[in-house]
Amino acid sequence: MNGTLKRAAVACLVMFGLLMLNVNYLQALKAEELRSDARNIRNYYDRYDVQRGRITAGGTILAQSVEKKKGDFRFVRNYPDGKVFAHVTGFFSPESQSAIENSENRYLDSTHPDLLLRRGIDLFTGEPTRGANVEVTINARAQKAAHEALSASGKRGAVVALNPKTGAILTMVSLPTYDPNVLSGTDKPTVFGAYNKLDKDKTNGPLVNRAINRTYPPGSTYKVLTAAAFLEDDTSRDGQTIVPAPQVLDLPNTTADLPNSGGAACGGGQVPLVYALERSCNTPFGKIGMDLGYDRMAEQAAKFGVGKPLAIPMSVSGSDVGPKEDQAALAQASIGQRSNQMTPLQMAMIAAGIANDGKVMKPYLVQKITDAKNDTIEEAEPEELSEAVSSETAAKLRQMMVSVVNNGTASRAQISGVEVGGKTGTAQTVQGKAPHAWFISFAPAQDPQVAVAVIVESGSAGTDASGGQTAAPIAKAVMEAVLNK
Hints:
Layout: H1 2-29, H2 31-35, H3 41-46, E1 55-57, E2 60-67, E3 75-78, H4 82-89, H5 99-103, H6 105-108, H7 116-125, E4 133-136, H8 140-151, E5 157-162, E6 169-175, H9 180-183, H10 188-200, H11 210-213, H12 223-233, E7 242-244, E8 248-249, E9 258-259, E10 270-272, H13 273-278, H14 282-292, H15 294-303, E11 310-311, E12 315-316, H16 327-334, H17 344-355, E13 359-361, E14 366-370, E15 376-379, E16 384-387, H18 391-407, E17 421-427, E18 436-443, E19 450-456, H19 467-483
Parallel strand pairs: 1-4
Antiparallel strand pairs: 1-2, 2-3, 4-14, 5-6, 5-19, 7-10, 8-9, 11-12, 13-16, 14-15, 17-18, 18-19
Helix pairs in contact: 8-19, 12-14, 12-15, 12-18, 14-16
């Protein structure tokens, strides 16, 4: 009898222990997963019971929660100028969120540990729960200018502008765009139907943030990096250094040699480096890349941040110069073709690094987070990512890029009374398709306040699109907006 009771007691203890383990497992390890499960109806209603914090840019409200007078949902998210800022704010749907709405979600919905004291005070005083406010670095005036200039004639592409001295992101436009208000409603069938329609549009990709999550061959804009590597390799070199500039560059082990654009000559076969940059000649930069070698070129790219993981706080797709291949491939990569793939943000970082005396600042999008009483919880501190080139090399490159705008292919980026530096790019895509049109720039050259990268995608600006004709005027509009010209 005693044996039977002991066995029953042990079984009860084991079951009780398993029960306690399961309770702890559910509460400690599975709690977040269960809380966020789409089948959790209570969570569905709770999402709209909290007054999420605002997302602002300076004094401009980009996202806010509006209280409803009727219905089962207390607050609904509203985006006053949704399409212009969609890839900055993101959306807040019944089951998910994106961009800043996602990366700063725990601040916005008040569940972040930093807001524990504020939640406790609100509970004690009986005030409704309110999330923290997120102020982004975006210059609303410049963002609207970029959106308007890029959207003219239905262009696809992206515009990124940075403060070269801090890394603050001043504009981040991606087109086509979408209306986050449509994806932030409370009716699931309507919201999910709208999302699926956008998601299935692979040709236009309105949900894709082209500024940070799509890479492209950078074309001739990349020649500034090749020039940087050339100048860093020998400090006695400058824009007047004579470089070989054949009409066609003979590439080893292939019959596909490298010509200049349209097969044109580049001077008389030998030209100053600044002339090669002004005219965007291919052959001098292809030869420079081959002479320096893959390792040196890859090292210079890494110093500008290429290949380094980035979050702004949204994750940024990696840029890459491509694998180590033969000399012919290296010549192509050195003029921004072959396997060379860059995000618009990365190309803006290259322009910004040259503008900022060779120092590349880490890009960031969140300026400040404040609680419902406007007390600061967190504030951005500019951080240097790397020193890409010496200040002397940066000064030489700035002078050369100013010459590109004043005397070369980028005349349409000129701003009255402001010295602008820039570089055009026309990147080949696949056989028979129109090229991408690129432009990178900074201004004013002697005290840069803004650095810009623009890409207009293949075919969206006509078959004859070029960096100088198509992308440079967009960058000019953004620079003027930042400088209030």
